[in-house]
Design a protein that fits this description.
By secondary structure, the protein is of the alpha/beta class. It has ten helices and six strands. Bound molecules: 1,6-di-O-phosphono-beta-D-glucopyranose (B16) and magnesium ion.
Length: 223
């Protein structure tokens, strides 16, 4: 689109914010296995279908959802969160650069080549460790993670914090997300959402692709 036409509608994009778990790497599966093990140990009902709703949610929110109506005090909550996290972290032990999802690194590099900034917007408190294991930390201009804000996705705070770190306006950002809660967060932030996964999960995004290696960046940036 010619430069002058962009003055009329939205501004040209200046940044892409990538979710981590389920977009850059498939740690979504490790989160699921960690919750499943905890649920089995605690005698709580849990399965893959229930897990879908937890994608992108913070550790605490996920546990509260898993517990449902069960009354649990703060010490117990902490113990369970630590247990799940220890299972999750153990499963990351053998993670290496080969564990980036197909097309993920190419997509980040394509965005950078076009002169746009790139950030991570992940609910995870383990995001930096995962990025280090993937040897991708240095590729991002900013990292907003589970330590950055109090209100996790679907609140817009995390993506707004990422935009602030990049020094760009929300309307200049595209978010790539695999979670319903993450798409909600991007929309609430006033950003353009690209959903990765089935329509039942991310069909409310502005653009949707089945997998990261199918993202048509040209179409997204110039829609
Ligand atoms: P942690 P994302 C999210 O990461 C995961 O999707 C979600 O399953 C997890 O509960 C959350 O991080 C918190 O992770 O327990 O490591 O702090 O998808 O926003 O990159
Ligand atoms: Mg995710």
């Amino acid at each position: 689109m010619p430069e002058h036409q962009q003055d009329v509608g939205r501004p040209a994009y200046r940044a892409v914010i990538f979710d981590l778990d389920g977009v850059i790497t498939d740690t979504a599966e490790f989160h699921y296995l960690g919750w499943q093990r905890l649920a089995d140990e605690e005698g709580l009902a849990f399965d893959r279908a229930t897990n879908e709703a937890l994608r992108g949610r913070s550790r605490r929110e996920s546990l509260l959802a898993l517990l449902g109506d069960a009354a649990v005090d703060e010490d117990e909550l902490e113990r369970m969160m630590q247990a799940k996290n220890s299972y999750y972290v153990a499963s990351l032990e053998t993670m290496s650069p080969q564990d980036a999802l197909p097309g993920a690194v190419d997509l980040v590099d394509d965005v950078r080549r076009r002169g746009l900034k790139v950030a991570i917007g992940s609910s995870s408190k383990n995001a930096r460790m995962v990025l280090d294991k993937l040897e991708l930390t240095g590729r991002f201009d900013a990292i907003a993670d589970g330590h950055t804000v109090d209100d996790a996705k679907p609140a817009p705070d995390l993506f707004l914090a990422a935009a602030q770190l990049l020094d760009v306006a929300p309307s200049e950002c595209v978010v790539v997300e695999d979670a319903a809660s993450g798409v909600d967060a991007a929309l609430a932030a006033g950003m353009t959402a690209v959903g990765i996964g089935p329509a039942e999960r991310v069909g409310h995004a502005h653009h949707r692709f089945d997998a990261v290696d199918e993202v048509d960046l040209e179409a997204v940036l110039h829609a």
